[in-house]
Amino acid sequence: MLIGGTGDVGRRLVPLLLDHISGSILVVSRSGIAPDDRVETLRLDIADAGAEAGLPPGATVVNLTEATPPSIAAHIVRTGGRFLETSASPDYLEAITREAAATGGPGAAVVCVGTAPGLSTLMAADIARVEGCATVDIGLQLGMGRHYGAAATAWSIGAFGTAFRQSGATGTTARPRDVCRSFAFQRTGRERPALGISFAKEGIAGRSAASSSTRARTFLAFDPAYVTRFVWLLLRLGLGPALARRKHGLTRILMRLPSLGRTCTRIAVEAQGPDGGVLASRHLTAGDQADVTAAMILATIRASHSKEAPLSGATTIVDHLTLSGALDALRGLLPNMPIETWSTGTDGERT
């Protein structure tokens, strides 16, 4: 079952599910879609009181909208289903995790499912195990315009206008304009600037996250690079909050403009020691973010169903997938997409 399944990711996920799973697919949406033999539509405002009564018990649910109340996740867990959450917003994910952990029941909620978070979370969890790692920095570079998708564009505009809690610094907040650094998003070429943003960190330190001293920071950049610099200038002028308030209107304008940059997904993750020196790095380049997200969702569904002793309660993607397993799944599900990975560290560089 897909909640918010008529958006950019949902339109990629439905045909992928039809190709790789048996059974029917239920799309929950206020607008609905044209059904076919295996796709049913449930017209429902998921934010309405009592909306959970219309959901089938024991279903595998993919949530693609932050309009879904956390109580829906609790209902799915309580009735024995699986609730896969794709949001990157820390406060929303904390609410989902809290509700799922408190409700009891045989089902499970899985947060940080998708590309970022999701694939980026697996890369960060992998590199956090490097000996001496004190800080994990995650850099994301995404193409702008229609090939980025309306929901992701609106989320990014809102994130750039929002102050956020700094990881490992209790009570300390920062603004994206004040926290920036550069990443090598491609194997060859210059480093590109990226701006710090509020982002989900669940799962990076595994199940010991509550006691881990590893800091995690996330930075966002756009392709082409001049867009990132332009956004930084707007933020320096103090326009971040105004951009956040108008994110939906600005998104509608951007969706009408020609696409900027390439259709790309690039992730760079670095492990740093206590002195700030880089100990190791992991890199990935791939194609359209929505395609990668859809494939990661399907890979997580498969992994969560394959365990002999299924997990229950609040979990993250790291509890169900390994980085190598996720990459193998992506290459199998997206055979026509070039996906390149490389790493650096004490054992040298490998592809």
Give a written overview of the molecule.
This protein has 10 helices and 16 strands. The strands form 3 sheets. A 7-stranded parallel sheet has the order 3-2-1-4-5-6-15, with helices on both faces. A 7-stranded mixed sheet has the order 10-11-12-7-13-14-16. It is an alpha/beta fold and 351 residues long. It is globular. The mean pLDDT is 87. Helix 1 (8-20) crosses helix 9 (289-306), helix 4 packs across helix 9 (289-306) and helix 5 packs across helix 8. It folds into 2 domains: 2-111 and 293-320, Rossmann fold; 118-287 and 338-344, Dihydrodipicolinate Reductase, domain 2.
Quick description:
This protein is α/β, with parallel strands linked by helices and about 350 residues long.
Rg estimate, integer Å: 19 Å
CATH level-two architecture of the largest domain: 2-Layer Sandwich
- Low-confidence residue ranges: none
Structural class: alpha/beta
The strand count comes to 16
CATH class category of the largest domain: Alpha Beta
| Strand ordering within the main sheet | 3-2-1-4-5-6-15
What's the shape?
A: globular
Oligomeric state, counting identical vs distinct chains? single chain
The ordered string of helix (H) and strand (E) elements is EHEEEHEHEHEHEEEEEHHHEEHEHE
Helix content: 25-40%
Keywords:
10 helices, single chain, 16 strands, Dihydrodipicolinate Reductase, domain 2, seven-stranded mixed beta sheet, 351 residues, Rossmann fold
